[in-house]
Amino acid sequence: MVIVVVALILGAILGVFFFIPRDRKSGDSKRVQSNAKSNKASKIYSKAEVSLHNKRDDCWIIIKTKVYDVTSYVEEHPGGDAILDHAGDDSTEGFYGPQHATRVFDMIDDFYIGDLQQ
Fold first, then answer.
1. Calpha distance 64→53 (Å, rounded)
2. Which residues are bridge partners to 109 per DSSP?
3. pTM summary value
4. Ramachandran region of residue 112, left (φ > 0), alpha (ψ -120 to 50) or beta?
5. In angstroms, rounded to a whole number, what is the distance separating the alpha carbons of residues 62 and 92?
6. Cα torsion angle, 97, 103, 109, 110, sign
């Protein structure tokens, strides 16, 4: 019984290291910089305009009705090039897939650049 309790406690402690974002200020870690325009009014983008940003070095995505410039995150994406599967297009389904930890929902706001034209 004691072994089970100790294993659960150790599992919880180790789990914290995997689910809490690390401080990325160390020397060899790159810091992900958002391309989002802060302190500006929301801009409205057409689907055609978003579709032009469909490359590794220029990657915008649509999630629901919002547009995000995730160019600076492409190389950091834990899922590799999967983020490019819908570059310049609607990524809503993939974004809400089971592969994403809940912290992704907080992170995405850093990349917001505007709304999709309805």
1. 17
2. none
3. 0.65
4. beta
5. 7
6. negative
pLDDT in tens, the chain (118 residues): 767 655 566 555 655 454 444 444 333 334 444 444 444 557 999 999 999 999 999 999 999 999 999 999 999 887 888 889 999 999 999 888 878 777 788 899 999 999 999 8
Give the DSSP letter of residue 82: G
Please tell me what DSSP assigns to residue 111. G
| Cα angle value 85/78/80 (rounded, 5°) | 40
- Beta-strand (E) ranges in 1-118? 43-45, 54-55, 58-63, 66-69, 112-116
Residue 110 and residue 68: Cα distance in Å, rounded? 9
Locate 37 and state its tokens.
């325009």
Cβ atoms 44, 115 nearer than 8 A: yes
| CA triple 75-80-83, angle to 5 deg | 85
Q: Are 63 and 112 a contacting pair, CB within 8 Å?
A: no
